[in-house]
Amino acid sequence: MSDISKIKVIEEMEEFKILCRKLDELSISILKTLQSIMVERKYLDANLKEGYINMAKARYLMRGQKIGILQVNNSNLIATFKISSYLDVDEGVEYLNYKVDEDSLPEKDVNLKFRTVNAEKQLVDDQTSDSATDEVDSQTEGLRTSKDSMHSNSSDPLKWFGVLVPESLRTCQSRFKQSACTALNITSLHNKLRELQKEYNTLKSQKISLHSLVVPKDHSSEPVCHNLVK
């Protein structure tokens, strides 16, 4: 074998090792993204469950005043959230990310948790602090007078059910708003996962093509290095 051939084989081996290393890194990124999606879905389920429970409590407390779709004015609905999308880069891939414009939110909603896709460590901690936050919010809402409510945003859906509504209905609204934000995070994570999978399949095809060059035909079909996801 000539020196040129030896150099070419060495370069191909190095390229093959680099591909294996990139595939391993992508495998870890895919697993982390899947874990984030699972945690976000659990957080979404918890918020939806508590929202429906508080809606049932509000219906019981208001007795004669029903809470339902008949109180909704379909001809004059205005979106509470304004959503924007942008291209984000993370883990070496570019994907479409969604977020809620904070400028479109009233001041009382600034405490909603708008987490980015990189905040996996905060997800579990946020759930434990929700109960304490709800108690503080409940006390704050209880101090509001009917005059303050009259001057609040007229587009607030709570006004469809009267000026003085039960605290459980306010909590229900807050939980559903948080659920909408969490749903956006899940969508962004799915977009990221899709791009990671595309990049993984592309590198895997390159690895298969290169493997046929660096491994002799009479050698075992097993690759030299193994990545986590095959």
TrEMBL record:
Keyword terms: Coiled coil
An individual GO BP term: vacuolar proton-transporting V-type ATPase complex assembly
Pfam family, one: Vma22_CCDC115
InterPro entries, sorted: Vma22/CCDC115 (IPR040357)
Coiled-coil segments on the chain, per record: 186-213
GO molecular function: unfolded protein binding
Region (Disordered): 124-154
Keyword S-adenosyl-L-methionine (UniProt): no
Lineage top rank: taxon: Eukaryota
UniProt-recorded name of the protein: Vacuolar ATPase assembly protein VMA22
Organism of origin: Araneus ventricosus (Orbweaver spider)
